[in-house]
Amino acid sequence: MPMKVKEVAELVGISIRALHHYDNIGLLTPQETTEAGYRLYSNKDLETLQQILFFKELDFPLKKIKEIITNPDFDQKEALQLHRKMLLEKRRRLDNMIQTVEKTLQQRRGEIHMTNKDKFEGFDFSRNPYEQEARERWGDEAVDRSNAKFNHMSKQGKDHMSRQMDTIYKKLATLRHDSPDSDAAQAAIKEWYFFMNESINNDDLMKFKGIGQLYIDDERFTNNIDNYGEGLAEFMRDAMALFADRHKK
Fold this sequence. Notes:
Blueprint: E1 3-4, H1 5-12, H2 16-24, E2 32-33, E3 39-41, H3 43-57, H4 62-69, H5 76-108, H6 116-119, H7 131-138, H8 140-151, H9 155-175, H10 183-200, H11 205-217, H12 219-225, H13 232-247
Helix pairs in contact: 3-4, 7-8, 9-10, 10-13, 11-12, 11-13
Keywords: Activator, DNA-binding, Transcription, Transcription regulation
Protein name: MerR family transcriptional regulator
């Protein structure tokens, strides 16, 4: 029996606004409506919604999800099998992180001693979920150089890079309510620019500005960056644009 949008929202635990948005962007448009214009979702629509939410759980942006599920070659069974593999891997990594958190709490209580290596068990930066998008936007050569550099780093080097990035994000988060044009904001963004030069071989100011825009255009980046503080992604986008425009030759 077809379901109205409110019923689907209550069943799934998703907002009515989100369902309307999926319809507006052509991601999930119910084929049937009532005479009064209310959307009616069929079982097939619900299956599509399930696929969308699986992809969202794996941090795919809505634009990419639409591209995948509207492809004539899209195989739902194959996708489900891939979802299972990816979610199992995600669970494995989360289990390792949880174990590290529990050990850290035990150490804080004085129950165990953790080595520096123990403190970073579970952190895994060997896979980049945005690599394909980076290849599409900026070409294989730059990404290959970056990957080659990263893959040849020692674990200590990778840990050091992660800590550097975390420190800069935290510094920028404390400044996000200030003007992105302030001296402090521009000094912190300069650190981010040089960090990116070192870590991904990007010294092109216009690409740097473009990456800042990507922080807003791609909700995966926005969500990850805003974990440090709501509005940080937008603040960084504006500060990076100002920095690039000021220093370009």
